[in-house]
Design brief:
Protein name: HTH marR-type domain-containing protein
Strand content: 5-15%
CATH architecture of the largest domain: Orthogonal Bundle
Shape: globular
CATH class of the largest domain: Mainly Alpha
InterPro entries: WH-like_DNA-bd_sf (IPR036388), WH_DNA-bd_sf (IPR036390)
Structural class: mainly alpha
Organism: Erythrobacter fulvus
CATH topology of the largest domain: Arc Repressor Mutant, subunit A
Distance between the termini: 40 Å
CATH superfamily of the largest domain: Winged helix-like DNA-binding domain superfamily/Winged helix DNA-binding domain
């Protein structure tokens, strides 16, 4: 029996799993960091094949995001921009006012307000009075919203 076949049925130890998981976590962090760098920063020029692959990935990810939220066109709507903005704010521990959410939606305020109402009805966001300024309202991502955004973001990896 060779070394390869003797290890085939062996279950990895907890330490081996943790080491493998640590490597996977570091590789994922590096991949994310590389994706945030521009081609100019990397000193590379993407090939036509790379750009075609990226186009396919974006196209597929949009459809998957629509599926996650159960709404055709969600990935190209102001709603997706709002959810991404609120997710980032949540990760930073900051609050977003209704006005800021409307600006972040990059559409007319009336359209953004309609989307905020729809997202609230879908239980993806929560709206409440600002504790510092009672004239303002803040919006934040709900637990369900956070889970859906994270699921949708995985479509882009």
């Amino acid at each position: 029996m060779n070394a390869q076949s003797s290890q085939a049925g062996r279950v990895p130890s907890v330490g081996q799993f943790e080491n493998t998981q640590g490597i996977a976590d570091r590789m994922e962090a590096l991949a994310i960091e590389l994706r945030t760098m521009s081609d100019h920063e990397l000193g590379t020029v993407p090939s036509k094949q790379t750009l075609a692959g990226l186009a396919g990935k974006i196209y597929s990810a949009r459809r998957n995001v629509d599926e996650v939220f159960g709404m055709q066109g969600f990935a190209i709507s102001p709603a997706w921009d709002i959810m991404l903005d609120l997710y980032q704010a949540d990760c930073k521990g900051s609050q977003i006012s209704v006005t800021s959410a409307c600006i972040g939606a990059a559409c007319p305020a009336t359209t953004a307000l309609r989307w905020l109402n729809a997202l609230e009805e879908m239980l993806l966001i929560d709206r409440r009075p600002d504790s510092d300024d009672k004239r303002r309202f803040v919006v934040e991502i709900s637990e369900l919203g956070r889970l859906r955004v994270e699921q949708a973001l995985r479509c882009h990896l």
